[in-house]
Amino acid sequence: QVQLVESGGGLVQAGGSLRLSCTVSGRTFSINRMGWFRQAPGKEREAVASMSWSFLSTSYAESVKGRFTISRDNAKNMMYLQMNSLKPEDTAVYYCAAREGFGEYGSWGQGTQVTVSS
Predict the structure, then answer these.
(1) H/E element, 69
(2) Which has the closest alpha carbon to 20: 48, 42, 40, 1?
């Protein structure tokens, strides 16, 4: 089992920046890929960014390309999401998730709220 805890959310004005952190513990050796997802009120959860845990390849939603950066720190077992040029439409609860093997994302954090004011 993998345990995930997000932090770093908050309230920021449009154009500002936030960095989300995800602390990873447990069966970290079994992780194949990790990602950040978000869910806004009344909307479905969407993938924001993901990273191969071994090869560091990344992918991003079109809506955040050029503004968000996913990264990790092996030594600290941490994953990050640097969010720049934030827009009100980025307002959502952000979740980190881990995938063991090649199936669904099976481990999720509790979420952290990001609110961007206009």
Answers:
(1) strand 68-73
(2) 48
Check whether 83 has a pLDDT greater than 80. Answer: yes
* Beta-carbon count within 10 A of 82 CB: 15
Are 7 and 20 contacting, i.e. CB atoms less than 8 angstroms apart? yes
| Cα torsion angle, 22, 63, 58, 37, sign | positive
CA distance 35 to 28: 14
Question: In the structure encoding, which two tokens stand for residue 82, read together?
Answer: 């640097």
Query: Which of 74, 76, 115 lies closest to 94, judged by CA?
Result: 115
Using alpha carbons only, give the angle 30, 22, 80 rounded to the nearest 5 degrees.
105
Q: What distance in Å separates the CA atoms of residue 88 and residue 117, rounded to the nearest whole number?
A: 6
pLDDT value of position 43 = 96
Q: How many residues does the chain have?
A: 118
